[in-house]
Design goal:
alpha+beta
């Protein structure tokens, strides 16, 4: 089992994961900045985005449920499959496969040692939760800004889903460094109108963007970001797909390359107010059940 962070896994916040908060990328199929002659600003589309964003934030404030699910992560270094358990103190994970192979006994013990250390260290848990809360606060800033930062145009409908094209509003003045990245983003947004939920965002950077938050650097033109969320049970929506492809530099010298895809599946509802110790036991039980099935 391993320790997971808000950046990699805890994207319950709404559509935009913490990766967007820190990296600030922003779909193909548009003409550069999304400002071509075919773009026609529609105030009604913008108002729809405003209502959906308000509902997303309200649902997030209400929904404190926990889930167990599987996370497949694909990077240039390889592919991993993990089982994730969400708890009140954060998420924990158990590695199932690394490049299609089960982890070695040494790797399993190393994971177990890390999670055991965290589970018995309240100070480390508090520090971890503090970082995750800061991530969530930044994400909320980004989501709240969506209706004001962009102009929108409806370009299609499919059942309950409305597809919008967006580009920066030239009159928008970012209220924070987080929001300033929106001046370089353009793309497409899918909304579920019936449930007032953000369904998908697919966006790109059409010019270089500087960023801060203690990192100080630049993301280069052409970077892309796509994330989808789906209804995973009767009352809960969650992120299911994230694709990130960004390059840039940090601190003016260090190269940044972020190429990552994540796929979340097999969501199972867990009891509310789950402690980390209880989460560890759930993962152990899952490992035992898997071993028994393999032995049949």
């Amino acid at each position: 089992m391993s320790i997971t962070t808000a950046r990699g896994l805890a994207r319950r916040l709404v559509l935009l994961p913490a990766a967007l908060v820190f990296l600030c990328a922003a779909s193909h199929g548009d003409d550069g900045a999304g400002q071509g002659p075919n773009f026609s600003n529609d105030p009604k589309a913008r108002e729809l985005v405003r209502r959906v964003v308000a509902n997303e934030l309200e649902q997030e404030a209400r929904d404190k449920s926990h889930y167990m699910f599987r996370l497949k992560r694909v990077t240039p270094k390889g592919t991993s499959l993990k089982e994730i358990v969400q708890t009140d103190q954060g998420s924990i994970a158990r590695t199932l496969l690394i490049d299609g192979k089960a982890p070695t006994e040494d790797e399993k013990r190393s994971e177990q040692d890390k999670i055991t250390k965290l589970a018995n260290d309240p100070d480390a848990q508090r520090q971890r939760m503090k970082r995750e809360k800061e991530d969530e606060n930044r994400a909320q800033i980004m989501v709240k800004a969506l209706p004001n930062a962009f102009l929108y145009q409806e370009i299609g409908r499919d059942g309950d889903t409305v597809k919008l094209r967006f580009r920066p509003d030239p009159n928008y003045e970012p209220a924070s460094r987080e929001e300033s990245v929106y001046t370089g983003m353009a793309g497409e947004l899918w909304l579920n109108v019936a449930q007032q939920r953000l369904r998908k965002i697919d966006a790109h950077l059409f010019h270089d963007v500087d960023f801060g938050w203690g990192i100080l650097g630049r993301l280069y033109k052409g970077g892309s970001f796509m994330v989808e969320q789906e209804q995973v049970d009767a009352n809960h929506w969650d992120t299911t797909v994230m694709k990130l492809d960004l390059t840039g530099k940090a601190l003016l010298f260090k190269s940044l390359v972020y190429k990552e895809q994540e796929f979340e599946s097999d969501f199972r509802r867990l009891p509310d107010h789950l402690t980390m110790a209880q989460g560890v036991e759930i993962l152990k039980k899952g490992a035992t059940e898997m071993a028994e099935k393999q032995g049949e």
